[in-house]
Amino acid sequence: MPHLTILYTPNLDGAIEDGGADIQALCNTLAETMAAQRDEALAAVFPIGGIRVLAYPASHYAIADGGAAGRAADGTGEYAFVYLNLRVARGRSAAVLERTGRALDACIKRHFEGILTERHIGVTLQIDEGDEVFNARTSSLHPLFARD
Amino acid sequence: MPHLTILYTPNLDGAIEDGGADIQALCNTLAETMAAQRDEALAAVFPIGGIRVLAYPASHYAIADGGAAGRAADGTGEYAFVYLNLRVARGRSAAVLERTGRALDACIKRHFEGILTERHIGVTLQIDEGDEVFNARTSSLHPLFARD
Amino acid sequence: MPHLTILYTPNLDGAIEDGGADIQALCNTLAETMAAQRDEALAAVFPIGGIRVLAYPASHYAIADGGAAGRAADGTGEYAFVYLNLRVARGRSAAVLERTGRALDACIKRHFEGILTERHIGVTLQIDEGDEVFNARTSSLHPLFARD
Q1: How far apart are CA B6 and CA B129, in angstroms?
Q2: Which one of A13, A55, A141 has the shortest CB-CB distance to C79?
Q3: How confident is the model at residue A97 (pLDDT cuts 50, 70, 90)?
Q4: How far B134 CA lies from chain C's nearest CA (Å)?
Q5: What is residue C57's three-state secondary structure?
Q6: Hey, are the CB atoms on C51 and B62 less than 8 Å from each other?
């Protein structure tokens, strides 16, 4: 943890200059933003070895009214959508979660700034605190970041 | 919101006439069903700009006993599975959620009626009320549907 | 139910002998492990017709520091990650859930034993008890396993 899963419409794939949303760059910048979060004691909010961002374009999708309002407004009816769900472990303060959410949201708003003016797109970020009843980890990743 | 995520086995891809389940048509009809829901005051249960259906075929899967019982019953051992998870925001009445669930379930049962008699398939629909600790939205979609 | 969803980095695709993690074999062995679970009364913990494992490689991802620590340690900076989320219905005892989690975790540790020594990989298993507000099932699968 933290795990950020991104579900999005495949019409966002591709580089920004080709009309896409460069979802790989979004993954990178969100991971960096998570790594940069500090709590009240200036300690890292998230262990760096636990940061994971995974993004998935849907194979099929239907958004809103399917395009009618978009066509009525500007001639295209293609909608795009990105859902970002961050699952964190229990135990962080409400203030830390709020600040983390705002930092990620700022990052998202920067990333989609240009696209928002050119396309009909919805982007939603939610943070869930996991309430798992069992948790187990097997890792050769965390030891890379173990404190000496 | 609402977000309906569909996870399914890839042996359902393809058109109905080719033995598939036409998951794109399922996405469309579910989005329309969500848009058509009305509450006790005859207001839309869901803002139309917030309706999102995303469907994902799995790359790998294992179902039930892996096919033994299916082979024993009819010679094929290929199972199919569809999991539909609708996440809605908190605050709707139990009656509205129940009615919405029944409407979606009826839609699903219609869609899979023929397939159920020809294949071994499981379809599960669940509705979750999100209990997110942070929520943020960036959208050029919702304004299309803003009330005057 | 139970539904086990596996999200993983695509650099794990492929057979073990080709440096992959054989995710299909992992799905199979996890399904068998779920089917083998017994409760205090020696009854099956899960109905066999309800066992579903679906695995999804991400299209884009960012893990930890993006590779810097891995490169500093051994020359490669490629990280891998697997997230396994098992969602079960409410109503099983804490002891049964714990034992099920341990059985799945043992299965995972065996599967990734060799890979853990050769690659930087994180594997996380979590079990969630669903708290759905609506649930509906349509199935031609369960009848295959109906008790006489």
Answers
A1: 16
A2: A141
A3: very high
A4: 19
A5: strand
A6: yes
CB C111 within 8 A of CB C131: no
Q: Specify burial of residue B89 (Cβ count, 10 A radius: 0-12, 13-18, 19+).
A: middle
A109 and B51 within 8 Å at the Cβ level: the answer is no
| Average model confidence (pLDDT) across chain A | 95
Alpha helix stretches (DSSP H) within chain A: 23-36, 68-74, 94-118
pLDDT of residue B17: 93
The pairing of beta strand A60-63 with beta strand B52-57: antiparallel
Tokens, residue A89: 């472990």
Q: What pLDDT, in 10s, does the model give residues B77-109?
A: 999 999 999 999 999 999 999 999 999 999 999
Which residues contact residue A111 at a Cβ distance below 8 angstroms, ignoring those fewer than 6 apart?
A21, A22, A25, A26, A29
φ and ψ of B39, to 5 deg: -95, -170
- Asked if C133 and B97 touch (Cβ cutoff 8 Å), the reply is yes
- The structural domains of chain A, ordered by start, are 3-145 (3.30.429.10)
DSSP state of B78: -
Is the pLDDT confidence value at A148 over 60? no
C100/A136 Cβ within 8 A = no
Residue B145, phi then psi, degrees to nearest 5: -110, 10
pTM equals 0.97
Selection from C32, C26, C48 nearest residue C125 by Cα:
C26
Going by pLDDT thresholds of 50, 70 and 90, the confidence category of residue C75 is low
**Side by side, which strands form the sheet with C3-8?**
A134-139, C120-129, C79-88, C3-8, C52-57, B60-63
* CB-CB contact of A148 with C72 (8 Å): no
Among A62, A75, A82, which Cα is nearest to A4's? A82
Section B25-46 average pLDDT = 97
Supply the DSSP symbol for B67.
T
Pairing of strands C134-139, A52-57: unpaired
